[in-house]
Amino acid sequence: MPDKDLAMRLAVEALRTAIVLAVLLLIVRFIEILPFSGLPILDPRISASDLLAACVSAAGIWIFLKAGANAGPVVDALAPWLPGAGALLLHVMRLSAVLFAYSAFQGLTRPFIGDLEWLYQSVFLAPTLFFLAKAVMHVYSASESVSRAILSALDPYKRK
Questions:
Q1: Is residue 124 over pLDDT 90?
Q2: pTM
Q3: Cβ(87)–Cβ(142) under 8 Å?
Q4: Whole-number Cα distances in Å, 136 to 88, 102, 153
Q5: Where are the domains of the chain?
Q6: CB-side exposure of 62: number of CA atoms within 13 Å?
Q7: Which of 17, 155, 143 is nearest to 83 (CA)?
């Protein structure tokens, strides 16, 4: 059964990504407890742990987005009733990555922006709204196919 194989591929990709992200989280926690993690780097207001955690977070975001791109074709095949399901998954994963990046890089930027916190928020608001709008428009454009699939599944007179 090809659907079972596709579901297994998707599960393997999701589990692999979860394991890698968990290892990266452990690396960040380990960095934070190191004795030199409080040393200032480049600027007295930025510590070594802030810089290293931001680098590890950037790697995590890249891995997360790569996993979404790898899972897209599998999701397309698993959900034929939703045209472009893989693209929708990628929009949602990009949105999640932007939201994660907002908190991941805040420690590095906060010392420099001072009273301009609204500027940092605006930089992340733009891509958040962009990917949210793309996801909503994708769902809207696929709503006819989804409606037909639901009605077909609920049709009591359907021939088997």
A1: yes
A2: 0.81
A3: no
A4: 9, 21, 24
A5: 2-154
A6: 7
A7: 143
d(CA 12, CA 7) in angstroms, rounded, equals 9
Amino acid in position 105 = F
Structure tokens at 151: 């009605």
CA distances from 144 to 79, 83, 88, 149, 151 (A): 14, 10, 15, 9, 11
Alpha helices in 79-142 (DSSP H): 85-104, 106-113, 117-141
E strands, the chain, are 40-41, 43-47
Q: Which two tokens stand for residue 41?
A: 């780097």
Arithmetic mean of pLDDT, 69-74: 91
Per-residue pLDDT for 12 more than 60? Answer: yes
d(CA 82, CA 35): 51
The pLDDT tens digits for 35-52 are: 877 888 877 888 888 888
